[in-house]
Amino acid sequence: MSWLVVAKKDFQDAVRSKVLWGISALFILLMAGTVAVFSLTEGLFEAGGPGGGPAGPGAAGVNFGPFLFLASATTLFVTITALVTCHKSVAGERDSGSLKLLLGLPHSRLDVLLGKTVGRTAVLALPILLGFVFSYLVALGYGVDFPLGEYVLFALLTVLFAFVYVSIVVGVSATTGSSSRATTLAIGIFFVFEIMWDVVPTGILFLVSGFSLPVNPANYPAWYYLVTWLAPSGAYNAAREAVLPESAAVSLPAEAWFLEPGLGFAFLGFWVVVSLGLGYLRFERADL
Q: Quick one: pLDDT band at residue 265, thresholds 50, 70, 90?
């Protein structure tokens, strides 16, 4: 259980840092603000629109709800925070030379990699859970309907997503001994996963559809959704829809029998195994 010792030290160091509590306060404000905004604009997203006017966005195959609103906030927070707090988790210690001292203790390189992953996940889990607790209290105050059981599932799923993203970033950090290169790789991860991954399939669909996109997202081809689910954030959204079907952003094409939201969990697992596996292979062979 040597990896547990590394994880415990990593977490304890973070708890003593003001940065962690600043991140926690930021996430609490983000989540509480998101709930407040939803409560004030909820009527705009009803199918009939405010005052019983024309059909709202829901009629176009897009569903709106409090879980979907919170998902946007949690995805943004987890991805950015994981990148900022984890990209130097291994590379930074290699660069400074402190990793040699750590490995001088009875810790293997695998212990360090796993310990850093678990420790940094715990660091992110703390503000995430605090944010969910406070936002639930805000939701009660505004009268937003959050079934407690489903809310807890959503919170735990978000912690799982944090673990996946931490695994990706720690795995990438383990492939290099340069802090500047680790920073560059972190920026690249955000650009590829959070920006280009959705832009590219949308652009392809725009071209093959005759320079226009279907008005109803339910008419998008099945391959489009499958590609978006491959990204960590897309897999998180698919997994959310699997455990909370009412939080689905769009109605999936009926003929796409293989578009099972449960695939999101498989894709999340894929990113953990591949990221840590490749990171360990590179880290194990590195000359410190």
A: very high
